Amino acid sequence: MSRSPMRREERIAVLVPVVVMFTLGLWGLDRDGMWRDEAATFQVARRSLPQIWHLLRSVDAVHGLYYLLMHPVLAVHPGEVLLRLPSVCGAAAAAGLVAALGVRLGRPRVGLWAGLLYAVTPMVGHYAQEGRSYALVAAGVAGATLLLVRAVEGGRWWPYGVVVAVTCVLHEFAALMLAAHACTLALARVPGRLWLRWGSAAGAAVAVLVPLVLVSRGQAEQVAWLTVPDARSVRGLVEQFFGPSRRVLVPCLGLAVLGALAPLPRGVSLAGVAAPLLVVPPTVLMAVSQFRPLYYDRYVLYSLAGVPLLAAAGAERVVGSARRLRLGGWTHIDRRLYGDGVALLGVVAVCCVFLVQLPLLRDDRRAAHRPDDLGAVSAAVAQRVRSGDPVLFLPSLERRSALAYPAGFRGVRDVALGVPAAESGTLYGREVGPEELRRRLEGLRYVWVVTERYALDSSWTPWNATDRVKLAVVKRDFVTREEYVRPHLTLRLYVRRQVPPSNGSN
């Protein structure tokens, strides 16, 4: 086959997954309602650069580069679509890079199948529509992996080092890709000079990351909610990576195992790239988390790229075996028609995977599918709370709904707020101390409380002294007059108890 048609096939194999992923990412992107993590991106990225820097010194340094990248994006037109659009672009780029890896290490149809399978995976679609950095990190890791392959085959190493450094600063757990890449080099049995060049590039990237690691270690309380991963965590990750439906999981897992068991030639191979990328980062993070919990599935989203690559490689092995069993000779036209037919058959198989998982993809595009809907909270407040009414947020982080959707809270009186979020260098603002809050509450005849159901449970004890005062005072001095309950929201109107008349003499 001439090189020109091959290049055309390679371009098609890469561009089709990009277009499919971008289209799926745009589907339902304008859904209303940011959830809490998206709201953090939205309100922080809209601050001035000095205010963002002020925040990062005390909290969320791990997301600092992402906030800085989102700052000019949201300056254009703040809203849900622009908040999520960079993630759509990141997921589309990742799909194309996965396809490019399949093309370079296999053949065009392998890349086409891998890129399309990546694009229709529900976990990919989920983070493609979320205003956080994970889809961009996945694109960065896929890009760094492709640059690693090129460097080993004679390319330059500095682009690899730059992309690794930027990706790791975007999210520091992306540094685990270096362990996967080391395994790839070991499986490829590269000579010592390549190990030295890779070590120099990787070392430079790690040196760039070290200051962020030191700062984020001082902010470790942000991930104090994480738990030690167990067998359920492993099972959950397998379902997320290979497909929640058994009709997808079983054949995809079988093909991936077949692809991973392919004989490894000397040099970089598809299995030698994909298997370490899939296995090493989650395994290392889960192992470390047995001593200090740091694992969450989205932190290793980028490892998912190994699944479609291995599954496509496994499918290619099946095709090769079937072809060897065919009797008779092959003409040039026969081979071309056979190759096109096989490629089309693989695309049809991916379409079937898409149809099986379509209900999951459709449900994921509803705001109710996220952990919470801050837009719904703001709308509920707007319907019931009048301008000038006093409001308490319990706990204080419930103020995030007012920061993300301030229109619903316009004119209300935030009783506990001392210094606003942007000025205080915090995510949710700095509240007044317990005594000042008691003084402010003394003169109120009524107060609205925005909270979640768990915060009103008798067994819950706030860690924050100001939140403890809120809870104690409203329970002691007020009674509930109205209550509006939704998932992840309780809005209560408390009115002051009537003081019984004294029986003593005047």
Automatic annotation (TrEMBL):
Any GO molecular function: glycosyltransferase activity
Membrane topology listed for this record: Multi-pass membrane protein
Top-level EC class as recorded in UniProt: transferase
Its EC number(s): 2.4.-.-
Compartments (UniProt record): Cell membrane
Entry superkingdom: Bacteria
Keywords per UniProt: Cell membrane, Glycosyltransferase, Membrane, Transferase, Transmembrane, Transmembrane helix
Transmembrane parts of this sequence: 12-29, 81-103, 110-128, 134-152, 164-188, 194-215, 270-288, 300-322, 342-361
UniProt name for this protein: Glycosyltransferase family 39 protein
Phylogenetic placement of the source organism: Bacteria, Bacillati, Actinomycetota, Actinomycetes, Kitasatosporales
